[in-house]
Amino acid sequence: MKSRKKIIFNGVFLVVVFVLTIYGVFHGEDLSSMMSAIHEADKKWLVPGIGLVAFFIWGESIIIWYMMRSNGIHLKKRSCFLFSSVGFFFSCITPSASGGQPMQIYYMKKEKISIPVSTVILMIVTITYKLVLVVIGIGVAVFGRGFVHTYLQGILPVFYLGLALNIFCVTFMTILVFHPLFAKAIMVKGLKVLERIHLMKKKENRLRKLEDSMDTYRDTAAYLKNNPMVIVKVIGITFVQRMALFAVTWFVYQSFGLHGTGFWEILFLQAVISVSVDMLPLPGGMGISETLFLTIFKPVFGTLLLPGMVLSRGLGYYGELLISAIFTVAAQLTIGQEKKKKA
User: What is the CA radius of gyration of the chain?
Assistant: First the structure.
């Protein structure tokens, strides 16, 4: 019943945010001119953009496949692609991308992959995924002062907030992994404080569950210590994967026949949006992503700003949502079926 209520809540929340986003972005705009500009865009530049979105999803599947093999689990690459699609689909439709990994663990369990193994692997994916954003964000903030002054003046509070939240998340998860006893002490203390101020009901088995969950972090630490080159390679793949999705906006820029802004400028502007919205409790950063695009890309797209945002966001988020949704259906129909037949 709780699960059903959560699904209904997430569905309603997604629809409400989507409607408010559509209203906020398009209210008072000349929609006929926007559609005309989109129609005139050179479609041959958009096809590679779609390919980059598919590559983005495929990139995580390669990471999962690679780390599974390092754990002695041999999976087909197409199964890993389905796991990746499931993760991205549920991340796109749930606040703070909170639904992706639980659903991946569920489907991995159907393939007889133990929950501790899948949890450790997905935790490493999360850490590296956010670590890349942190490195890019710090690089922009420290070494790109001219870039910041030119493009980011209007969104600096949001950018720094997003960067700070990502740094906190990566730091906290790293502490959990490498200092489980210290992390346990912090979490037990926090749990008691929450119970004392009546934000949580006191339950005897909650501490036991917390202790059990710390085993996962110890396993992750052991994996990281025993497989340092695996982690280095995963970080490299993740960096390329994320850059591929950021580059979609450059292909949209080219489809309008625009010139004057370089590839790396556009790529890092799109990266700034991801850094800013990644930790916010909105499905796919919906609403805030569109607002930030319309603010920082104004000097880049000029009069084609709105159609540029529609195509960029359409490919980068809604395209990802559509592709991952199709393969999530495939996952539902195929994952675990061979195991059932053999049984």
Answer: 21
